[in-house]
Structures are given as C-alpha cells and as structure tokens.
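In the design runs reported in the main text, the only information available to the sequence generator was the tokenized backbone. The following block is the verbatim input for one such run; it is reproduced so that readers can re-run the procedure and compare outputs position by position.
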C-alpha cells in the first residue's frame, strides 16, 4: 500500500513557489493589472456618483410631491382662517396638522404676516412676504425653494401656494420638510452603493488578476523559452490547449524550436565535418576577415609557421607571423577578389622550407562585398628536394654511364681505324679494356635496377624465409677473400655467433654484406686488416665490418649513402665502384627495420655496423 501516493514532494513545492515568484515579479502582469484596477475604480466612482445623483433627485422629487399634496390640503383648510382672520383657531389647527404629518406648516396673509405656524409662535416670526417661495407663488400657483432655516437651524425645502377664492388672493400657505432625513437617506444609499460596488470591485479585481495571469503566464513561458533558445537550448517544448492567438503563438514557438534544433544540428554536424577535414589536412589553412583578423587556422598551418593555433584566433595576421609574403597574398586576394598563387621560403636556423600558397577571397554572400580571404599552404620542400635529387641522379647516372660508354667507343673506333697496323697483343689489350668497361657498365645497370626495385613502392621487398646470418656472412667473406689476398689485406673474423637467424631474403642480406665488405677491401691499403664480427645482443643482431683504410671525413659521413656520392671520386672510379653500393645497403637494412652506424676517422679506418632488431623479426 502506497501511503504517500498523494503527497507533493519538496522539489515540486519549490518549483511551484519559484513559478509563483516569477509570475508575481512580472512587470507586464502588474501593468495590465494596474490598468484594469484604474478602469474598475473609475467605473465604480462614476457609477456611485450617477446612482447617488439619481437617488438624490428622486428623493427630492418625492419630498416635493409630498409638500405639494400637503399645501393643497392646507390651502383648503386655511381658507376660512384667512377669510375670518382668526389667528387662534388657525394656529391650533396648523400645529395639530403639523404634528400629525411631521411637517412644518405656515399660514401667511397677503401682507406677509404669519397667522399660524406649526413649529413657532407666529408673533415672534418676521414678515414672510419677501421669501423666495412666497414671491414665486404670487405669479404662479406655487413656489419652491431650498435653504437654511435660521429659525429651525437646519436646511429645509419650502413649498408655498397661493390661496385664492374666485381669483381673489386671500393669502399663502407653506409646507416645509427638513432635508436632514433626506441627506441621511442619501448617505445611507450611498453607503450601500459604495459597499456593493466595493464588493463587486474586489471580486472583479480578483477575477481580473486570475484573468491577467491566464494571459500573462503563457507569455512568461514563451519569454523563458525564447531566452533558453537564445542561450542555445532548443529542447524546451510548451504544452497548451488554448484555441486562441496565444495558443497559436505557442504552437509556432514549438515548431520554431524543433526546426531551429534541426538546423543547429545540421550546422554543428557540418561544422564538425569541416573541422575534422581541416584538422586532418596535411596542408595548412588560414582564413582572415576583412580586417585581417584570423578567424581560422588549422594545426598544419600552425606547425608550418611555428605558432600557436589557439592563441592566433582573433589576432591580426601580421601579429602572429612576420612573413611578408603570407600577409601580402592574403591582402591581395581580399582586395583584388581573385585567386592568387605564390611561393615563399621559410628559414628555421640552418634549415628551411619551401611553401606554395594558394589564396582565394571569401565572400559574404554579396558579390560586391568581400568578407576576407583564405590561403592554403602546401609544403613542397620534399618535392623540391626530390626534384634536386632526381636532377642530381640523372646527372650522376648520365656521367657514370657516359664514362664506360665513351671508353668502349674510343677503344672500338681505334681498333677499327688501326686494325691493319695493330699487333695481336695490342688488340688483346684493347679487348680486355673493352671487357672491363663493359663489366663496369653492366654493374652500374644492375645496381640501378636493384636500387629502383628497392625504392619502388609498387614492388615491396618480400621477407618470408629464415636466413642463417652466420652462413651468409661466411660466404660473403669467402667470396671476397681472393680480392683481399691479391691486395695483401688480412680478412678475418672477430666475435662470431653461430646459428643466428632472421626473417629475410638470403640474396638481399648477402648483397648488403658483400657491398660493405667490398668497400672495406677497396679502400684499405696493402698490409691493412678487415675484421668481420657477428654478435647477438638482448634485442638486436649486430654485423660489424671494421677496416684500417683511408677513413671518412665527418662532412662526408651523412652523404655516403646517397646515390653516386664518392668521397674520393678519382680513386673510386679507379677501383671500379659504381657509387650505388651503400645506397643499396641502406635500403635493404631499412626494409628489415634496422639501421646503419658509421664510426670513422680519416687515415685510421672505418667501422660499419648493420643492426637488426629481433622484435621485428619475431613479429
């Protein structure tokens, strides 16, 4: 059984109190309510005044009619008195009549003398001929007036009537009633009217408050919804069962919120996609407005310019970088309204980059108004370097190929021109030279084809067999042993670990080791020594070739692995080298995720270390 099913929670009470406080603080509610109150109060005052006036008018009319009836009655009764002139009989009759009707009666002669009065002694009363009501009754049947009575000390209404017999004026009769009773009646009536109107006004104001709240509450909700939408919250939806204009307004707001939320979601999605695209681009992107303020810069551009992307937003482009070419191309694109392409060089210490810039104007939707400009930065440093390498390669390859071809051509032309006079020994010498140059030319072509294969991405090296390095190194040493012996060089083994295997290709490994050994033998003088070692460390395999040759200068160590680069060009050609051996070795080692280390001192020899990581081999 749920004992607390009908109770209201504290949070609901607090929410209700907050809504009430917000409603009570509404300015428009109190403005409308104030106007409503003013209108009601003015209407109540007008009704009270009108009703009071009507009551007063009607009451005075009733008094007037009563006085008219009483004067007509008194006129008939007073004729004998006026004709006889007996004051005593008339005074007693008037006093008795006034007492019975609670009316003040007065009988007045033609001369204005008071014969009888129901309230006062006639002898003590002044002449009444000049009284307004008496004067008016002379010319009319009756006269009426309202004034303050000095005799009775109160405000009275007087109605006088002339008494005539056959058109002969005998005198006047007058009836009077005090207006205090009338005033009391009017005052009581006004009190009742004011009380009634106050009750009606109070009820109307209470009803008006709830009526105003009925109209203001949805407006406050719409205001809150509009403020929430302005703050970016489009999830609010109002419920309304009203069929009037406010209900239609609520429905319009709900529809606007739904459509705005959908549009914002589309905009956010597009913005996220655009940010993801711009962030993931390797090209740098910078956008500025018409005032040269940076409105967007991606990480690639920040890295190229070596600046902070977040700190650059909102700053002028010439404040974040001093590159005049970049500032100039953005300004020209914005001013000229067309696409502009330029390049610039950026120096970082001893190194630098070549940047190609494509700038376009940004439009605000109006073709005549430019909103700024955007520039895309392409780092073409590697392309320029590759172009330089390609030119050098073509130049070096052409030169290397030209040398044996020229020698062969010269020798053949000499043999053809002097064949009749050439002895057999000379012809044989020429043929041997031609064969040597042909072998050199063949070696260059073979090495070029091997290097092209290693550098080709479409034909990656396939390392799919376990190769015994001990056997490969031993075979390479044995193959070069005759050359070393012929030059008087000692070719020996140092530390040598047997049964060391790696995942590789036996032909590639043999070519790499042979090229390093061949260089060591070629550049070591007679009486020198070449030592080959094979060691297996914890995570690496090291093949070391140490010689006592001419050595390598420090400025040449970084370039000996370039194609056709020779430390001593004359001696290298004399020894028959192609200039591609170490470049091939480098590619083979890199294909095994290894590295090459070189230690050398001019005149003291050189040590090459080929290092293969075991982790890569096991994976």
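Verbatim output:
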């Amino acid at each position: 059984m749920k004992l607390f099913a009908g109770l209201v929670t504290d949070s609901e009470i607090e929410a209700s109190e907050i809504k009430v406080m917000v409603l009570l603080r509404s300015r428009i509610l109190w403005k409308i309510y104030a106007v409503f109150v003013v209108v009601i109060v003015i209407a109540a005052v007008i009704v009270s005044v009108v009703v009071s006036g009507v009551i007063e008018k009607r009451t005075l009319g009733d008094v007037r009619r009563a006085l008219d009836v009483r004067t007509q009655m008194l006129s008939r009764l007073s004729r004998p008195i006026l004709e006889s002139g007996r004051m005593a009989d008339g005074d007693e009759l008037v006093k008795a009549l006034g007492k019975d009707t609670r009316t003040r009666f007065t009988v007045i002669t033609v001369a204005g003398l008071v014969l009888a009065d129901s309230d006062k002694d006639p002898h003590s009363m002044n002449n009444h001929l000049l009284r307004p009501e008496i004067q008016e009754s002379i010319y009319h049947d009756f006269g009426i007036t309202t004034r303050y009575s000095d005799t009775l000390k109160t405000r009275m209404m007087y109605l006088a009537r002339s008494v005539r017999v056959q058109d002969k004026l005998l005198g006047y009769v007058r009836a009077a009633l005090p207006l205090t009773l009338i005033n009391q009646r009017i005052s009581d009536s006004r009190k009742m009217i004011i009380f009634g109107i106050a009750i009606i006004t109070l009820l109307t104001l209470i009803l008006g408050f709830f009526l105003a709240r009925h109209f203001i509450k949805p407006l406050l909700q719409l205001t809150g919804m509009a403020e929430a939408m302005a703050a970016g919250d489009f999830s609010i939806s109002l419920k309304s069962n009203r069929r009037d204009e406010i209900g239609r307004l609520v429905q319009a707001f709900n529809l606007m919120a739904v459509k705005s939320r959908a549009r914002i979601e589309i905009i956010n999605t597009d913005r996220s996609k655009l940010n993801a695209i711009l962030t993931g681009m390797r090209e740098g992107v910078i956008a500025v407005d018409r005032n040269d303020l940076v409105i967007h810069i991606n990480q690639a551009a920040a890295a190229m310019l070596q600046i902070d992307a977040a700190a650059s937003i909102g700053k002028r482009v010439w404040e974040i970088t001093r590159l005049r070419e970049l500032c100039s191309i953005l300004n020209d694109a914005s001013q000229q309204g067309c696409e502009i392409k330029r390049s610039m060089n950026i120096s970082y210490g001893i190194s630098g980059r070549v940047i190609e810039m494509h700038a376009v104007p940004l439009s605000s939707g109006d073709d005549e108004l430019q909103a700024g400009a955007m520039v895309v930065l392409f780092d073409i440093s590697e392309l320029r370097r590759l172009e330089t390498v390609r030119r050098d390669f073509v130049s070096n390859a052409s030169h290397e190929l030209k040398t044996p071809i020229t020698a062969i051509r010269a020798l053949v032309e000499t043999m053809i021109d002097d064949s009749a006079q050439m002895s057999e020994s000379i012809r044989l010498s020429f043929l041997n030279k031609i064969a040597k140059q042909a072998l050199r030319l063949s070696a260059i072509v073979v090495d070029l084809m091997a290097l092209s294969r290693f550098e080709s991405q479409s034909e990656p090296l396939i390392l799919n067999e376990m190769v015994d390095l001990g056997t490969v190194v031993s075979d390479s040493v044995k193959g070069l042993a005759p050359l070393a012996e012929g030059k008087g060089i000692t070719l020996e083994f140092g530390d040598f670990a047997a049964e060391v295997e790696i995942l590789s290709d036996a032909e590639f490994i043999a070519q790499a080791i042979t090229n390093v050994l061949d260089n060591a033998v070629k550049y070591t003088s007679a009486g020198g020594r070449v030592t080959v070692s094979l060691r297996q460390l914890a995570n690496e395999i090291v093949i070391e070739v140490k010689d006592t040759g001419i050595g390598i200068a420090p400025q040449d160590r970084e370039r000996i692995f370039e194609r056709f680069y020779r430390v001593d060009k004359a001696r290298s050609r004399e020894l028959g080298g192609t200039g591609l051996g170490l470049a091939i070795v480098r590619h083979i080692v890199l294909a095994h995720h290894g590295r090459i280390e070189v230690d050398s001192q001019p005149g003291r020899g050189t040590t090459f270390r080929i290092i293969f990581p075991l982790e890569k081999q096991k994976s």
